[in-house]
Amino acid sequence: MGSYQDARRARIRFGVVFAVHGAVTGTFVTRIPWLQHHLGLNAGQLGLALLAPAIGAFLAMPLSARVVDRYGPRSAMRLLMVLWCLSPALPALAPNLPALWAALFVYGATSGMASVQLNARGVEVERDLGRSVMSGLHGLWSAGGLIASGFGVLAAGQHLDARIHLAVTAVLLTALAVPACNGLPDLRAEAHPTDGPQTSRKAPPRLALPPRSALAIGLVGFCAVFAEGAGMDWAGVYLRDVTGASPAVAAASFTAFAATMTAARLTGDLAVRRLGPVRTVRLGGGLATLGGLLVVCSGSPATAVPGFGLIGIGVATVVPLAFAAAGRTAEPSRAIAGVATITYTAGLSAPAAVGLIAQTVSLRASFVLVAALTGALVCTAGALRHRPAPASVADAPSEWTVGAV
What we know:
Blueprint (H helix, E strand, L loop, with lengths): L3 H26 L2 H8 L3 H18 L3 H8 L1 H14 L2 H5 L3 H33 L4 H24 L4 H21 L30 H29 L5 H5 L1 H23 L1 H21 L3 H15 L2 H9 L5 H29 L2 H18 L25
Helix pairs in contact: 1-7, 1-8, 1-9, 3-7, 3-16, 4-5, 5-7, 5-9, 7-16, 8-12, 8-15, 10-12, 10-14, 10-15, 10-16, 10-17, 12-13, 12-14, 13-14, 13-17, 15-16, 16-17
């Protein structure tokens, strides 16, 4: 990438892009109730529509390497972020369920490809700085989502038409993303001598399947994202139906859970630098398991709420560290895409799996599975152990070995 100072400037710009990416998500989720009411969808139809983003991301993420090969890293990042920022406006224009499904498929596909490139480029910044920054970057993603969701709640409260809200927000976020992307270094310049079409080297495969090195790392991410998805989607229902919480407490559970994860991610790099990635994940897995057990054994909100908080804190840094570990493998681009695909699968399966277990056994039993998966983090964290990168690019001394196990 260049000098250590260049990497520091790139970190700031990538932080902006991560926050914008999260803000797009935070904006859209607040207008899902409007979409349901506007199209007259029942719960089953809405659930079917909301599968589309995950399927779109799952299918599109392995194609992201081709986009980079065609346009170069900087232009690819700019293109994907523009498409991602504009994509939430499409679902609001859908006249019926099939059109909504198609629009949400595009929304998920652009999100997934932009996410792969964000994490791949974030790993490059981390390498040049020689210290952990991925947790903080993901924390900025979460912070962007929280801030945007706050504005979304205000817009919904004022009964602002979602078509206007999403269109205006899309333009504003695009205006933030483009300058940040324009200032990014053209990473991997030795592989991309120009920021345009590449013809002098062999192109990557059209469908970049994940290498074996990504599977163990992806398993760690799968466990964390499953617990995260279960907590975010089911905490409110659990508090209401199992512990008898008031509607206000149950409704506030998502915001509290997301805020806890944001705070943990923003401060997580300090833990990683002191303990190393493996110990950090093992400690987080232990905290999340304790939280899961508190949830399972709780009979009141007073014990369930702290339990959900511990789950959020425990899994907060795992996904950023999984992407960082994928970026240190021999095939970083394919590995990062593979880990992203596996974690998106977890995000897709978690709400459905929790609901299925809740329907056949009980909701309390669903969180026994969550506790078991977070416990597995303690055993599988070794997959994130730092191994020397294929080529050293850092200009500053590495801090990855501090406290490494």
